[in-house]
Amino acid sequence: MTTLTASTAKLVCGFARIAVPEEAIYRSKLAVLDCVGVALAGSREPVSRVVRGLALETSGGSEATIWGTGHKVSFLEAALVNGTMSHALDYDDMNRSMLGHPSAVLVPALFALGEKIEAPGRDLLKGYVLGLEAMARLGRIFGPQAYDKSWHPTAILGVVGACASSSYLLRLAYEVALNAIGIAASEASGIKKNFGSMVKSLHAGSAARKGLWAALLASKGLTAGSNALDGHFGFMEMFDGTLRDIALPDSTGEPLEILKSGLIYKQYPCCGGLHSVLDNALLLRQKEAIRPEHVADVECRVHPQKVAYLDRPRVNEGLEAKFSIQYCVAAALLDGRVGLRQFSNESVLRADAQALMRKIRVIPGVDLDGFASEVSVRDVDGRRFSNRLPEPKGSASAPLTEDELLRKFVDCAMVSMSSGRAKKAAAALMRLETQSELRDVLQLLVAD
Asked: Which among 35, 45, 75, 410 could bridge 88 via Cys, Cβ 3.0 to 4.6 Å?
C-alpha cells in the first residue's frame, strides 16, 4: 500500500502536469489578495514589530520583501515575518477541511521563494492550489482529533502545506520531495494553549518558514525517513492519536479542494469560531433596535468544542478579546460593528463593555453543527429576541463577493498606505497570473 508520505510526495511531483481550472486560479488570487491585505493591516501589531525587528537585526540577506516596508531580508525570514503579520489580527481566511488558516502560511512562503527565484505569478497561484490541496486532504484524514488534542492545525498541517508549495516551485524530484516532507514532519508544532497570545500569530509565520526551509534542505541533499507521516512514532500517531496505514485518497476526477471545501473569508478580525455569533448579534441589534443599556442578559449557544476556548468572561487585552464570545458580542451590541478598532486595549477595557460582558453567557449547543450558533437577547422588560444561523457570512453558502474582498483589502492596506496606492496594489494582485515575476507587485506594497 502506498504510504501517506509517499502519496503526498506523488501529489507534489505530479502537480505540474495537472491542468488547473481557471476558476481555481481565480480563487487563489482572491486568497492572495485577502492574505496580503490582512498582513498589511497587521504590520503594526506588537507581534509583527517584534518578529520584524529581530529579522532585520539578524538576517544576513536581502532577497525578499517584508510587506508594507521597503526592507528586504533573507527569504526565509521574509516568510516568517509576513506569515506572522498575516495572522496577527486573526482576520485571515480559513478552510474547514484542515480546520485552520491556509493562506497565512502558503502566501508568505510562496512570495518569499517566488521573489528569490523570480517565479512567474501563475506558478505561485498553482503552488497555492497545491499547498491547500495537501493541507486539506490531510485535514480530512485527521478530522477534529488533532484540534481536540490541543494542536493548532495551522501550525502542524501548515508546515506540510508550505513544504508542498515550495517543493512545487523548486520542481523537486520525487525522492527529494519525499525527504522534504519527512523534514517538515519533524518541524511541525504549535499548541492551542497559546491562543489569545502573540504566539498564535507566530504559528503561521513559523510554519511558512519551516515548510520552505524543509524543501530547501531537501534540495541540498538532506535526507529524512521515507515514511515520516506514517506508522509508529510518525506524524499521524503524534498529532492524530491513531496508528493506521493510510494514503491520501485518490481524488482523480474530483474537484480540487479550493473548489470543493474552498475558503472562508472573515468579516471580523477575530476567531472564526464565533463569526456566526457576531452575525446573529448584529442582526438582532438592527432588526429589534436593541439598546445595550436595556439588555438584561444574553445567551450564546455554540458547538461544545468551541466553548473551551471561546468562553472567556474576563479579558484584559485585545489579543485575548479575539477569543472571547462575551467581549465580541458586547462590542457588537455597543458599537453596531466589530472591526479593527474594537480590539484595541482601550476598547476592551472600557467600562460599558466590561459591564455588558457580565450579562453574556456561553452555552454548549449539542444540536449545533461546527460553525452554527444561536443568540438570544432578553431586555429589561422581559422580551426575548433570538436568531439562529447555520453558517457565518463569508462561508461557501454565503460567500463574500470580489467587490467586498477588494473593499476589505483597501481598508486593511490603508493602515500602511494611502487609499490610491492600496487600490493600485489590489489591481496588481488581481492580475497576478499575468506577471512574469513579483517585482512590480511588491513595489506597490510599500507605504507612499
From this structure: 45
CB within 8 Å of 378: residues ≥ 6 apart: 295, 296, 297, 298, 384, 385
Is 1:245 a contact under the CB 8 Å cutoff? Answer: yes
Q: For 380-428, what is each residue's pLDDT tens digit? A: 999 999 999 999 999 988 899 999 999 999 999 999 999 999 999 999 9
CATH number at residue 151: 1.10.4100.10
Q: Domain ends where: 365, 389, 413?
A: 389
Same domain, yes or no: 192 and 71: yes
Give the residue ranges of the chain where pLDDT is below 70: 1, 242-245, 250-252
Residues 138 and 260 in one domain: yes
- Within this chain, do residues 10 and 86 fall inside the same structural domain, yes or no? yes
Cell triple for 295:
439588555
pLDDT digits (tens, 9 = 90+) for 62-115: 999 999 998 999 999 999 999 999 999 999 999 999 999 999 999 999 999 999
Q: Is residue 32 located within the same domain as residue 123?
A: yes
Q: Is residue 251 located within the same domain as residue 279?
A: no
